[in-house]
Amino acid sequence: MAESAIKIEGLHFSYGKKHVLKGVDLEVPKGSIFGFLGRNGAGKTTMIKTLLGLQKPQAGRCLVGGLDGVTDTLEVRRRIGFMAEDQQMYGWMTVSRIIKWVAGFYPTWDDKFADELAEVLSLPKDMKVRELSKGQNSSLALLLALGHRPDIVILDDPTLGLDPIARKDFLRHVIDLLQSRGVTVFFSSHLLYEIEPVADHIAILDGGVIVKASKTEQLRENVRRFALTPAPGANFRQVPGILDALKVGDSVSVAIDGCDPAKKALLAEMSVNGMTETALNLDEIFEAYVIGNRGRELSAH
Amino acid sequence: MRVQRIIHQQICQLRWHLLACLGLIMVLPIEEAAVNMHAGAGFHSIGMAVAAIMFSPLLAGLIACANVQGDLSEKRYIFWRSKPANVKKLMALKFSVGLIVSLAIIACPIMFAVVSSALCGRDLDDPPVKYYVPVPVMVAVMTYSLCFGCNVIVRKTARSWLLGILLAGFVLVVPFMLPLGFTDIVSDIGLWALGFYPATVFAISIIAFVFALYAAQHDWHLKTNLRGLLWAGTGLVFLLLMLFSSQVANVRVLNEKEIESHWRPYSLDKVEGKPIFQGRSYVNLDDSNISLERFMDERHPAIVDRVSRRKGDTYCQPYPRAGGVYKKAGDDLYALVIHSYWRHIEKTNVYENVYLRSYKLTSGSWKQASELDLSDCLKEGPLRTAMRLFDNTLVVCIRNSLVVLDVTNPGELKQIDKKVKVLGGSWSLEYEDRKKEIAVPLVPIDNISMEERIRLSIDLMYRFNYSDNDIYESSIVDVQDGKFAFFSVSGRDLARFDVIRWDRENIYCRFGTSRPFTILESLSGQWYEEYGTLVEDGKLYCRRRNTLLVFDVRSGRRIRKLGHFVRMDCHIDDMGILDDSNILLSARWYVSSGEGRSREQKKFLYLLKNPE
């Protein structure tokens, strides 16, 4: 893997007795657009807050741009741009005033670039923040996250609450603005169709651990679905890398990770009359990883 | 972090709150100034400006909550925390900006009072601003800090404000719960104001501030629910009320006894330390049990009743109005009374005769034993009478004259000396008197000690009025270790004047200190001397209607309230300090009889533990 923009090692975090992160290990390559997937409540925001140094982990560490998120908090925040889900800003301020206010925190704030962004994002500078539409609000939050020209941008469910058109618009801006500049984008979302077209890397967080982290294309290559009629006594749990096995009428649909000839041969043995292989989209891959039964339900057959 | 931008943002964030608070705090002074202007006294305000300062802790708390509320809602908190902002520095800046603008707003009524009074040529020290301003301002600083801290923790404006105010109130009164010997909310807090109090306020403010910084840094906050807070608030309010009520009902009642009596007046007097009730019974107090030992036959009227009857066109006015000055000679009990006779001629009362009479208790009734005609003391003008007994010497004052008598045997009144037209008028102490040296004429009597002369001189100067006076049984002068001081009770405060020297003609006095009455103490109305004030053994007792206050007034100390006795629907008629220092009260209760609006009167004697 190339040099890491973000490196997380053995991260543990719990709210009282509730363990949210149970040893997360993750590396985000420099210059990548990294899709961070997980269900609602999986711990994505918790992990991002820990990355930003907003909360201290019980164990493990986060390195952002080579800096420790816990000890070098301010420097980490200076280097990254962050946009939270459903970001709430100071409603009584005008757009230009909040830009000035946020600029005060960054020594590297680029006023010219911020003006350009405001123009690109069509932000009315004299309007009060509370009068902005949701789309404009997200655009403003994006401007405030990018105005200091960060190397790493963390977006936590940035399109939450936006309608489909506004969401597409927003993503177009993000990609236009960031992809060309070699900025590392850490994009957390539970909306897979949002991430699929833009992310070159994917990580899936489930049950407090990263269940899969890989390049997007590689993931698509490696995860396959097979439809077959099971032979009597077929035990799908024996298939290494099985993610899900669903009975559909007389046949069974099996999702496999790390598909290779040996696994295919093993599956063929469990089939009565051959099998068909199909590729999965990211949505299906995510579903297989997160709610897949690992062949347990069909083991008894 | 660019500090100017943060300060600018903070002021902008607070601007509407500040304007609202400014409006709230200035409405009373402006109202008073407008009323004054309407009355032709010029556009100035002092009293209401001072009153407005009393509300400053509430407003400071409000500004504190408004100060950080905008930053602490969960989503907004993440917004600014995700920026490279030094939380402690940012919160400290916010705290400082809010505190400074709070103090600026609190200063507005004071500035208004100073400027408007100066323009109208009014004296700012009336009422004494220095008493009322510093403590509320200090409390405001503490309330601000506590509300700031509460807001960081609770993150709900109204709840934080309420909690902050309650905590500040709690901090203010909690010393009265602790075994620190604090009993007086005015004097002890006033005492604190000179020492402990700024330290406490400063410490609490610092603790709340530092706590707020850490709470913001570590995102500590409570998930409060309204029901829990209401219960907690109710508990705190209850505790505060209990503490406050301990401030107004902290004199222990040792015993009380309902008295069946159709006679009036309900006076209490003493003879050789033994209390006499209504001039008819001794009050026996054995182990705090109250019992009456009647020495007068029920069929015979008391002295006052007998002589105050109208005889033709002539009326009789007794002194003392209730009872007499009692003296024992051997086993015999005597009562000494001044009787003045007057007629109503052409709309004026014309005094024709005045007698000093002694009555001897014989077979359950008062028999006149001796009489001295003092009518030559009567000159033009209204009548005023007083007397005081010093062992076997009785000093009688009639109008401006003094008569000294030997009453070793009260059955034979012997005049020793008479000084005609030697007394001045009766004076009351004004606020202006506190700024200068006062000269009190020394009564020209050589038959009593200098201590008694000074005491009598001061009492005659300030209490020898043309209506009733209690000179025969009490004094407003305190003597401690040879130092004399006397006291003045006004609607505003209780003031001590110290005797600084005396010569053959005058006693020279100067204002020492004062202790303002609290709202709670003035609930039943303003305090005045004529309601009954007496000083004994370093304690001042003042009573009015349903309230008795006891103060420690020893010289060289700050005046402190020791006890507060109050009973609603009660009327205190008279009181006496017993030899064992306990207090005996004669009081009436008005009880609804259940028929229409009529109220039944019940008579009680209370034995109270003298507070220390």
Condensed summary:
The complex is a heterodimer of chains A (301) and B (612). Chain A has 301 residues and is α/β, with parallel strands linked by helices.
Break the fold down into its secondary structure elements and pairings:
The complex is a heterodimer of chains A (301) and B (612).
Chain A: E1 4-15, E2 18-29, E3 33-38, H1 44-51, E4 59-64, E5 67-68, H2 73-79, E6 80-83, H3 95-103, H4 111-120, H5 134-146, E7 152-156, H6 164-179, E8 184-189, H7 192-195, E9 201-206, E10 209-215, H8 216-222, E11 224-230, E12 242-248, E13 251-256, H9 261-269, E14 271-279, H10 282-291
Parallel strand pairs in A: 3-8, 3-9, 6-7, 7-8
Antiparallel strand pairs in A: 1-2, 1-4, 4-5, 9-10, 11-13, 11-14, 12-13
Helix pairs in contact in A: 5-6
Chain B: H1 3-38, H2 47-54, H3 56-72, H4 74-81, H5 87-120, H6 129-132, H7 134-154, H8 157-173, H9 187-194, H10 196-217, H11 226-248, E1 253-259, E2 268-271, E3 274-277, E4 281-286, E5 289-294, H12 303-307, E6 314-319, E7 325-329, E8 332-345, E9 348-362, E10 365-373, E11 385-390, E12 393-398, E13 401-406, E14 414-419, E15 438-441, H13 450-463, E16 477-480, E17 483-489, E18 493-502, E19 506-516, E20 533-536, E21 539-544, E22 547-552, E23 560-566, E24 570-577, E25 583-592, E26 599-608
Antiparallel strand pairs in B: 1-26, 2-3, 3-4, 4-5, 6-8, 7-8, 8-9, 9-10, 11-12, 12-13, 13-14, 15-19, 16-17, 17-18, 18-19, 20-21, 21-22, 22-23, 24-25, 25-26
Helix pairs in contact in B: 1-2, 1-3, 1-5, 2-5, 3-5, 3-7, 3-8, 5-7, 5-10, 7-8, 7-10, 8-11
3D architecture notes:
The complex is a heterodimer of chains A (301) and B (612). Chain A has 301 residues and is of the alpha/beta class. Chain A has two domains: 4-218, P-loop containing nucleotide triphosphate hydrolases (Rossmann fold), CATH 3.40.50; 223-291, Alpha-Beta Plaits. Chain A has helices spanning 44-51, 73-79, 95-103, 111-120, 134-146, 164-179, 192-195, 216-222, 261-269, 282-291, and strands at 4-15, 18-29, 33-38, 59-64, 67-68, 80-83, 152-156, 184-189, 201-206, 209-215, 224-230, 242-248, 251-256, 271-279. Chain A has a six-stranded mixed sheet, with helices on both faces. Chain A has a four-stranded antiparallel sheet with strand order 2-1-4-5, with helices on one face. The mean pLDDT of chain A is 85. Chain B has 13 helices and 26 strands. Chain B starts with a helix and ends with a strand. The radius of gyration of chain B is 31 Å and the shape is elongated.
